[in-house]
Amino acid sequence: MKSDFGIEGIVFNIQRYTIHDGPGIRTEVFLKGCPLRCKWCSNPESMKTGPEVGVYADRCIGVDKCGYCLSACPQSQDRVIFTADNKVTGIDREKCTNCNKCAESCPANALMTWGNKMTVTEVMKVILADREFYRKSGGGVTLSGGEVFLQWEFAFELLKECKENYLHTCVESALHVRTDILEKIYPYVDLVLTDIKHMNSTKHMEFTGVGNELILQNIKKTVEMNKPLVIRIPVVPEHNNCEENIRTTAEFIVNELHNRVNQVQLLPYRQLGTEKYSSLGIEYPMDDFKPVKRIVWEQNIIHLVKVMKSYGVPAVAGTTSKINL
Amino acid sequence: MSAVEPYDKDWGVGVSGMVDNPSPFPRINNMLKWLDGFTAGVDHERACLVTEVYQKFSGKPQIVKCAEALSHVLRNITLQIQPNELIVGGLAAQPKSAPVFPEFSITWMLDEIKNNPWKNRTHDVHIMSEETEKNILELGEYWVGKTVEDLIKSTSTDEEAKGTSAGKGVFFLDLYTTGGIGHVCANYEKLFKLGFGGLKKKVEEKLASVDRSLPEDIKKRNFYQAQLIVLDASIKYIKRYALLAQEMAAKEQDKVRKNELLQIADNCAWVSENPPRTFWEAIQLYNIATNIILLESNGHSITYGRFDQLFYPFYKNDIDNKTTTREFVQELIENFFIKIHQLNKIRDVGNTIIATGVRMGGTALDVGGVDKYGRDATNDLSYMVLDAHAHTRIPNPWMAARVHANTPPEFKIKLFNVIRIGTGEPKILNDEVYIPAAMNYGRSLEDARDYVGVGCVEPDAAGKEYGWHDAAYFNMAKVLELAINDGRCVGCAANCPRWEICGSVGKRLGAQTGSLADFKSFDEVLDAYDKQMEYWCDRLVSCINIMDISHQQLKPLPYLSLLIDDCIEKGVDVSAGGAKYNFSGPQGVGTGSVADGLATIKQLVFEDKKVTGAELLKAVNDNWEGHEPLYALVNSDKIHHYGNDDNYADELASFALSTYCKHVEKRPNARGGMFMPGVYSVSINVLCGLFQNASIEGRKSYEPISDCLGPVHTYAGSHDISGPTAIANSVSKLDLVRVGNGTILNWKFTPTCLTGETGRDNLISVIDGFFEKKGMQSQFNVVSRKTLLAAQANPEKYKGLLVRVAGYSAYFVELSKELQDDLIGRTELSFD
Fold first, then answer.
1. Which of A296, B293, B505, B720 is 20 to 30 Å from the Cα of A253, by its Cα?
2. Where are the domains of chain A?
3. Are A129 and B825 in contact (CB < 8 Å)?
4. pLDDT over 90 at B820, yes or no
5. For A52-114, CATH number?
6. ipTM field
7. How far apart (Å, rounded) are the C-alpha atoms in residues A94 and A233?
8. What's the pTM value of the predicted model, to 2 decimals?
């Protein structure tokens, strides 16, 4: 997308003082849209590319007292906005054109927009506000998603601008992307964060909607291009937490990547973002998941880290260990 | 556990004081447990002794009377040496017991004993014996009408009183109306060099040189005579401890303890007159010399100064001579902390809202920073003092770590590891702002570099200054209310006790500055705030000067004057301007509230024109009832709010603060010095709120106003939503060098955000960045499980609370109940 002020991206969040997606203090820019549909995804608002309105009924102050959204909606005669018990409860996603008028008028954030068009200049303004903190901490900027590379032209311009400002850049991507795009963008990337969600492509397809061939190929490409790399493994019970999968992953890292990774992080799965699913009118795909006690999954992860380490892989539990770059 | 900790010793995150036996020294753990057995109490002995003297010597010059009173106390008050302790001294016979100071105020005490006994308070409960009650009631009769408070009140007219807590609460003078001044740091360096004997010689020389024919010198003669009275009594006081230690040693069966008692006796006997020779002697003298200031002056925030600088020569000498070990010095420091922790002060019930649960309060002690020549002065003791806090986990002393551009990284690691424990100690002062701020009010470069943070955070030229740092708290948000409401309170009505005086037709409480219903431009709003501010600052200054004159007249402090330069040189008491530097420091409260109130007016009334000024005024007059969408809007992120690195609101915060400073700074005070504004609230933002109806930034009636330099939090939610770096940027846009009496910024982190090396180092970096941008001060709340539970119950109040989740940080209140429960269950082991 090109506007009068240069290329625009759809950004659904900019989070300052992010301290776990790359080294130091970082500003993380979340780009909207993702080709994967991981069952455990905690950011459903990141899936679709265009802006969407989320509905939080418990924040609504009452249609009788306010009702601004109903007046603001250009399709109000079509009853696009649902109400019940004097509160706004949902949106007819079929009819809604995502014009965003209702969210703009809502004083209570009961209706809120996920995804804003922003220019590189606008995003850079937020990023540069914290440059002293990046310098002090060895931090910088992380682009995340959704899938960063779905808006690769915007990501490219943004990363280039960051490098022109001498900022450390990091990309968090599933790497389900054309390899030539990686080759184009990597010169402006200092660190890549990616996931290995499962080594078995069929399972991978089952849990995420895509196979793992392209992803693994891109991880190899990343190493070939000498990009610093952190691999993350979301350890999801009953999906990929079996020792066999972890061993296969370790073997891949050692044999195919020649262990040229800076860190491998094993992260616990949490039932996250359920409110966001319901605010968007989407069913939570792992609704039947039975939460595991902390003591159980903590021990499980500690064990899997040991297994990985036995292959010489620089594995750690969680994201609070320093990354050796 | 070794007593000498490595610099990167990690005590865990958010565990706070919830551990048994925190110290490697059994003695220290035993003393902490022993102290737990005492409850806060009140002791009448000091009051009885003082009253006897005032009755006996009623015709003597005031300063001599005061000296005789202190002398009588020091010579007769009951002494106690506690089990296990290596450093002796106290205020009243029992630990945690508060002495009574009838010279300062008595009415509230009699009233509360009769009608609202201290043992029935909801907080700051104090017990007392029937004997104490009877004694205070009896001696109280003598004091009614003779106290400092009586003099202040009889000097003030309604023009002064209407702004105080007796009126509409624009400013609060309560601490110095009923209590002493305190907020001072003695010249311990001089005391250690001369000892009481040397000081006595000095005063005798000055007395001998007095010209008996000059009228000024007659005052000086009284002053020096008073000093000699208290000097002799102080020497005697320490000798009494020596004697008691000897008596106890004679009866002691345990050989080790017997030897300790004998050493205590030797230490006291020596330092009663002579300069200390060892670390142990020095810390013994330090403790008792400070207690005498407390017994004389009834002030809190009697500051212990730069501990690591004062004691390093003794430490180095002892270690070099192999007469002590680092471990023993560590044990002495921890013992000393426990001595401070048992000091107590009884305040009237109103003042307990201002200073809740502080006991003595303001027992400030600094480490780190630069020396007089600007070089890094961090030494072994700086680290050991931080360890001593980790080993005691008690809220005393009030510790401050000074940092600067060349602070060693090892010291920062130690500092932040202690902060991460989550007790809230220590706070951090930034030399790079404190030093220019101190110089801006006329201190020399050397004195500014050698500053100490008195009480909460106030810069003070240690040993050379009488700064009146806690002179008042001033509600800037109330000024905005009066400014846009033509000098009237919001909700002004006939049921107000002041209706006849300032409410009815043609009258008003403040200056007539117009109404928001009529203003044609935002500039008119700013102009009204400025004029209203000038009106109230005039009255504030007048009140503080009245208090100053009253303290001077009735309560000279000849003992404290021994330890503050240049009182002896000038022959002038510290209360009357004898110090080298003299300030009066009133604190502005509510920067965030004023900024957000102004931003709301600017945006909604004059730019977006969404509401009229009259509608906004009506909404606050109705306490927002019937105006729910507007209430939600002003509390939402659709309005520019201070604390989000948003220039729109941050510039208004700067205006709010500098307007207050402009009308206060450098005005003359009653001791030949000047006024010096501070901007912090401690907990007085709560009290300010109790005096105020609803306000435009989205506050409901009686809700607290914003705290210190912090962003606004209302019942409807937090106004800052952009995280710690945004807060740092917003705050550092303010001209803090101008705020000579200090500022406070409260940080709140969840323990999970600070775990691991990365958590520690990123916290260090955010504060380094903040300080490089000229942030002045920082203090930390590493939020406990209790707070997380509260956040779960009232999510709107904790919007800005960051937590570490899985692979990233998120705002706690946006998480599901289940995950919140999981986070609440986290331990310091957590690695996700």
1. A296
2. 2-49+116-317, 52-114
3. no
4. no
5. 3.30.70.20
6. 0.94
7. 36
8. 0.94
- The per-residue pLDDT of chain B, averaged, comes to 93
Q: Which amino acid is at B784?
A: S
* pLDDT (0 to 100) of residue B787: 74
**φ/ψ (deg, to 5) at B530:** -60, -50
- Angle (nearest 5°) at CA B749 between B745 and B752: 165
- In terms of Cα–Cα distance, which of A163, A141, A156 is closest to A21? A141
DSSP 8-state code for residue B275:
P
Inter-chain touch B819–A133, beta carbons under 8 Å: no
Question: What 3-state DSSP class applies to A10?
Answer: strand
Q: What is the DSSP string of B617-648?
A: HHHHHTTTTT-HHHHHHHTSTTS--TTSS-HH
- Give the one of A20, A133, A321 whose C-beta lies nearest to B809's C-beta: A20
* Chain B environment of A66 (Cβ under 8 Å): 628-629, 632
- Tell me which H or E stretch contains B725: helix B724-732
What span, in angstroms and rounded, lies between the C-alpha atoms of B118 and B59? 35
User: What is the pLDDT at residue B818?
Assistant: 60
Average pLDDT of the segment spanning B505-524: 95
Summarize pLDDT for B51-86 with one digit per residue, the tens. 999 999 999 999 999 999 999 999 999 999 999 999
Q: Judge whether residue B831 has pLDDT over 70.
A: no
Task: Specify the DSSP class assigned to residue B814.
Answer: G
Q: Rounded distance, CA B190 to CA B315, Å?
A: 17
Q: Which amino acid is at B377?
A: A
Active site residues of B: 456, 458
The band of B825, judged by pLDDT with boundaries at 50, 70 and 90, is low
- Residue A320 has a pLDDT of 85
Which chain B residues are closer than 8 Å to A319 by Cβ?
758, 807-808, 832
> pLDDT (tens digit, 9 = 90+) per residue, A51-96?
999 999 999 999 999 999 999 999 988 889 999 999 999 999 999 9
Q: Look at strands A52-55 and A26-31 and give their pairing.
A: unpaired
CB pair distance less than 8 Å for A66 and B757: no
| Region of residue A293 (left: phi > 0; alpha: psi -120 to 50; beta: else) | beta
What angle, 0 to 180 degrees and rounded to 10, lies between the N-to-C axes of helices B591-600 and B522-554?
Answer: 160
Rounded to the nearest angstrom, the gap between the alpha carbon of residue B223 and the centroid of all alpha carbons in its chain is 30
